[in-house]
Amino acid sequence: MQVILDLCLVPLGVGVSVSQYVAECHRVLQEAGLKHQLHAYGTNIEGDWDAVMAAVKRCHERVHEMGAPRITTTIKLGTRTDREQTMADKVQSVEKKLQ
Amino acid sequence: MQVILDLCLVPLGVGVSVSQYVAECHRVLQEAGLKHQLHAYGTNIEGDWDAVMAAVKRCHERVHEMGAPRITTTIKLGTRTDREQTMADKVQSVEKKLQ
Amino acid sequence: MQVILDLCLVPLGVGVSVSQYVAECHRVLQEAGLKHQLHAYGTNIEGDWDAVMAAVKRCHERVHEMGAPRITTTIKLGTRTDREQTMADKVQSVEKKLQ
Amino acid sequence: MQVILDLCLVPLGVGVSVSQYVAECHRVLQEAGLKHQLHAYGTNIEGDWDAVMAAVKRCHERVHEMGAPRITTTIKLGTRTDREQTMADKVQSVEKKLQ
Description:
Four copies of one chain form a homotetramer. With 99 residues, chain A is α+β, with helices and mostly antiparallel strands.
């Protein structure tokens, strides 16, 4: 099962600046070989359900290892059985309607 | 790693009424033996990360099997390494502050 | 336009314990006279769109006034034009399917 | 109060394809003169709290007018009092950590 997932991980108890933790999550996604795209309020990821979810778990583990005692994460995720769809497809289908 | 997770699964392409799909997810959580609590905009679940995530995946599989061609899900999830905390603890710590 | 909204406000830069800020948001909702229900990962609120959104803004203002320099909030919200629906209706429609 | 907001609006009861509704929301944001950026699982918006929230409401109204009887929306939103921050700043602060 393929999934497109929007990940927004927020460490608590480490002050207001969270960019180093988000950067570390990007290294996790990179290491996992998953297609991903940073945006201003999260990171979009696409891939096989199990691979994507394993990476999300690894992000939590890694951010705790960096010293964050608490993490709250918001995820949006989509699956479909009617057809294959990539992150790029989703953006393009909206842009086509805007022309 | 323990997790507290808020699950809100929305099937698309099956009309406006989604309660039968939410009910099916509750059966999945029940079968998994996970502590869970329905509320007006989702279901809170607590347990081991892998067990909870396996149940979330099973919910997607089951709702697709019921005929929904597309699903979009919103999840909030929290982990902490400083102490153990249950769903009941979270509610109580707020209620204490309200007294 | 009526709305059912799930609010999860997270103050950053104030340590790991956030219950006093959540409690303050409950006072804001109380003062606004809005029907609301605390759960383990947020608070459900129901009411007129403008009244609910004014209360959400007031929560942000109040939590900043309490000293939180940064807030990240996750909201789920639903509107419908086909029929009226309360928070209690939503829970009951799932529970009926589980009987 | 400035806000950075991630909007993901999902119409129900209109089939599996939602791109025309997302496109309409972009027209609403355009008309409102708000800075916004489409991504694969939502749209980031930045601006004054009241202007952004008025646009979110207008999106719901417009999508209902297009025929969607039910809408469920997921929003992430951030405010801060310690400093000004744009959507571009947020992405850059992570990218700097990745160099």
